[in-house]
Design goal:
Its cofactor is [4Fe-4S] cluster. The chain has 23 helices and 16 strands. By secondary structure, it is of the alpha/beta class. The protein has three domains: 360 residues, no CATH class; 34 residues, no CATH class; 175 residues, IlvD/EDD C-terminal domain-like (Glucose Oxidase, domain 1), CATH 3.50.30. The strands form four sheets. The chain has an eight-stranded mixed beta sheet with strand order 9-10-14-13-12-11-15-16. The protein has a four-stranded parallel beta sheet with strand order 2-1-3-4, sandwiched between helices. Helix 11 packs across helix 14.
Length: 603
């Protein structure tokens, strides 16, 4: 199928804009390429340190020039349900490596915090910065330069983007991402949302809320709503970094074990001294990132990727902007409805056909770049199929022609919407993004007075006290950007604002903070840049100012005398950001880039 002309034009625009930066990235990659084992460049003393703790047999194997040594970077911890299955992956990987004539070693671990635990707490202010810490930790792990390939073990929110950024400093190596799979389905998502709203209104107690939450998050694996973690897994498939079809296979199943072994075998095969050398730089191209954005829009994925995709792309020498995301969203139909964009969870999505179905449909109308290199080889054909076990071995078969459930997943001829789920918002307040895939059309436009809060806790206190304006209003929560406090997610606002929407009022949120994949049904203009800490227009707003949030046309504006508004003195918030480790990140807050450029500390 011929590539969609608009997608072709956007891709070319990104390529042209990134020409010099990408050339610099590719030159660095070339400097570090070699077909010799990396450890052969080490001195004898250096090499002795590498294998000192290995078995005698592995030491002998590692000494052979033809034996690839695979470095494993793991985000294992047993507090995160999604990462708990990784606890015995190093042993599994080593056994699989030995079977294919390779060796493996855990190169290092990276931190993995849970936004679901820190939500509404001080620790959430470290969340976005944890992505860049993970990138640096991955770089430290691989800096020993003793590995011929790498496997990255990570699933959740900031972990996968951080691992990608870190891996791109070693783009001369083949790098494969190894998922662990989602937890089994628990309490239906609409019921969970209902209990949360009732609790926000004070109509049920904490005991009912806790029971609902425990029934939702109840086992090992990724949380099953379509937030950032599961959007990560979709992206790794779309961008060709997974073994095909491995994103949403459950932990502790034979198929999951076989797919992990397949990743090890592929890493050994494509190692610098393997049978078919490959490298990450050849996989993560402009076309791969465009494919990732297309997948995000087609599935209604997390708004966090409006931050992560530009940051990951920048590490690959590619300049990706909110305008690119917006323009791709305009031409890509929404094919999936997964909570919070619908009632189904990721298990239902996968059973209906999953990522492979989405990719096949998009390819059929030229809305993906088919001519890409993946960790699996040339093109996306195998990613449009599904893995199964046959005689104990994993094989790939064609997916059914029809969706298994059109309430969850639809063909390209009958999408849920002719456009994707993300919108760039522009106006005299700056640049923001809005996730509209879960917002009903009648809720996508609001012009109303605003109520301004300098912290989400201030809004929640006002809500509980009944001090929220009557009628339609726009909630402004500012001083939540990267420089102010690390840009925490503001999920705590969702139940309260949703309850006001359910009362028949028009409500919207404007913030320089984040909302993530759980942004829900309230129109939200988030990631607003310039942020309040930088004296952006949001810092000049006063309660009672009339604002317009128009998601359909992508406008975000102060309504009134603009010159008088912009002449106002900006509000200042000089609170100490400390405790729970936040004081250690003061240098990050000083140097972090703007949200529309990825909110990273590196560039």
């Amino acid at each position: 199928m011929t590539l969609n002309p608009a997608l072709d034009a956007i891709t070319q625009r990104i390529t042209d804009r990134s020409k010099d930066l990408r050339a610099k990235f590719e030159a660095r990659t070339e400097r570090y390429k070699t077909t010799e084992p990396r450890r052969k460049k080490l001195s004898c003393a250096n090499y002795a340190h590498v294998v000192a703790a290995s078995t005698e047999n592995d030491k002998l194997q590692a000494a052979l020039d033809t034996v690839p040594n695979i470095g494993v970077v793991t985000a294992y911890n047993d507090m995160l349900s999604a990462h708990q299955p990784y606890h015995n992956y190093p042993e599994k990987i080593l056994k699989a490596a030995r079977k294919v004539g390779a060796t493996s070693q855990v190169a290092g671990g990276v931190p993995a915090m849970c936004d679901g635990v820190t939500q509404g707490r001080g620790g959430m202010e470290l969340s976005l910065f944890s992505r860049d810490v993970i990138a640096m930790s991955a770089a430290i792990a691989l800096s020993h330069d003793a590995f011929d390939a790498a496997l990255m073990l990570g699933v959740c929110d900031k972990i996968v983007p951080g691992l990608v950024i870190g891996a791109l400093s070693f783009a001369h190596l083949p790098v494969i991402f190894v998922p662990a799979g989602p937890m089994s389905s628990g309490l239906p998502n609409p019921e969970k949302a209902r209990i949360r709203t009732l609790y926000a209104r004070g109509e049920v107690g904490r005991d009912a809320l806790l029971a609902a939450e425990m029934a939702s998050y109840h086992g090992v694996g990724t949380c099953t709503f379509y937030g950032t973690a599961n959007s990560n897994q979709m992206l790794m498939e779309m961008m060709g970094l997974h073994v095909p079809g491995s994103a949403f296979i459950h932990p502790h199943t034979e198929l999951r074990e076989a797919l992990t072994a397949a990743a090890v075998e592929r890493a050994a095969f494509t190692a610098a001294n393997g049978k078919q050398p490959a490298c990450l730089a050849d996989v993560l191209t402009v076309k791969a990132f465009v494919n990732g954005v297309v997948g995000l829009m087609a599935t209604g994925g997390s708004t966090n990727h409006a931050l992560h995709l530009p940051a990951m792309a920048r590490a690959a020498g590619i300049i990706l902007t909110p305008e690119d995301l917006n323009d791709i969203s305009r031409i890509v139909p929404l094919l999936a409805r997964v909570y919070p964009n619908g009632s189904a969870d990721t298990n239902h999505f996968h059973a209906a056909g999953g990522v492979g179905f989405v990719m096949r449909e998009l390819l059929s109308v030229g809305l993906l770049h088919a001519d890409v290199q993946t960790i699996w080889g040339e093109g996306l054909g195998d990613y449009c199929r599904e893995p199964i076990l046959q005689d104990g071995k994993v094989i790939w078969r064609d997916l059914p022609e029809a969706s298994g459930d059109e309430a969850v997943l639809r063909p390209i001829t009958n999408p849920f919407s002719v456009e994707g789920g993300l919108r760039e918002m522009k106006g005299n307040l700056g640049i923001a993004v809005s996730k509209i895939s879960a917002v009903k059309p009648e809720h996508q436009f609001i012009e109303a007075p605003c109520a301004v809060f300098d912290d989400q806790d201030d809004f929640l206190a006002a809500f509980k006290a009944g001090n929220i304006p009557d009628g339609d209003f726009i909630c402004v929560v500012r001083f939540q950007g990267p420089k102010a406090n690390g840009m925490p997610e503001l999920h705590s606002l969702t139940p309260s604002l949703s309850s006001l929407l359910d009362q028949g009022r028009k409500v919207a949120l404007v913030s320089d903070g984040r909302m993530s994949g759980a942004s829900g049904k309230v129109a939200s203009a988030i990631h607003l840049t310039p942020e309040a800490k930088d004296g952006g227009p949001i810092s000049k707003l006063r309660s009672g100012d009339v604002l317009r949030v128009d998601c359909e046309n992508g406008t975000l504006s102060f309504i009134g005398n603009e010159a008088s508004f912009l002449a106002r003195e900006p509000a200042v918030k000089e609170t100490e950001v400390d405790g729970l480790g936040r004081e250690l990140f003061a240098p990050f807050r000083r140097v972090v880039g703007a949200a529309d450029e990825g909110g990273a500390v590196f560039w």
